[in-house]
Amino acid sequence: MPDASTTPRRTALVTGASAGIGEAFAEHLAARGFDLVLTARRLEVLREVAEGIQRRHDVGCRVIPADLADPEAPRRIFYELARDEIEIDVLVNNAGYGLEKTLLTQDWREVADFMQVMSVAWLHFMQLAMPSMIERGWGRVANIASLAAFAPDSPGSLYSGIKAQMVTTSRGMRSAVQGTGIHVTAVCPGYTHTEFHARLGIADLADKMPKWMWQNREEVVAEGWRACERNRPVVVTGTVNKVLRAVLAVTPTRLVERQMLKSVAAVRSRGRR
After folding, report:
1. Is it the case that residue 250 has pLDDT exceeding 60?
2. Fold of the 8-271 domain
3. Rg for the chain, CA atoms, rounded
4. pTM attached to this predicted model
5. How many Å apart are CA 220 and CA 86, to the nearest integer?
6. Whole-number pLDDT of residue 269
7. pLDDT digits (tens, 9 = 90+) for 160-196
8. Which residues are part of the catalytic machinery?
9. Domain range annotation of the chain
10. What is the DSSP string of 131-189?
């Protein structure tokens, strides 16, 4: 049996690691002894996250600032890692955000950047990371999707369709690497306490949602990582969200869309009082 002291420590790359689920995932993996590579746009915030993790855990923690709207960002990150002989064993594709307007009203450049981050960058990271995982016979990929993947989208929004793509592609990639020691899981949280809604400018509306619909990010990460370790293709986190997914699966789309519009209108009405 190899000496644990001479066994190389595994390394996890977490995108969107400066806040929210990404930050919580980094903390969760550090607590389990993984060295970290953290990437996000905000360098100073990223450094603060890394410093906090290193104070609490005896792990290496490297930060690489990057804007994933740049198509070359994933390649540059992996070039830097290869230069320093760092191999990625765990990939957490978490980076993402929402658009304030619809496809028809949002500036096209902003839509194109959004699609690069949400639909392309995470695929590029998998293409860059997974071949070496296969060579080593071990790897974990957690793609952070959403409960929205199973629901009709809000009128004019791209978000649900993009997350549905992530779920479907994650399933396909999991099938492609069966038997190699690589696990691929789409993690689908519902409403989670993060910066997401505030940065989208709808924090006041989100605050009006029932408290029982919310999870904290640590719960999402713990269940998501457990599912990835068990090689489950998809996990919807939280009991309430599992029930909602089951309801969505048997409810006619038109009825769901009508109810979504009513709910949004009701929340907005309460917000104006």
Report:
1. yes
2. Rossmann fold (3.40.50)
3. 19
4. 0.86
5. 28
6. 41
7. 999 999 999 999 999 999 999 999 999 999 887 655 5
8. 159
9. 8-271
10. HHHHHHT-EEEEEE--GGGGSPPPTT--HHHHHHHHHHHHHHHHHHTTTTTEEEEEEE-
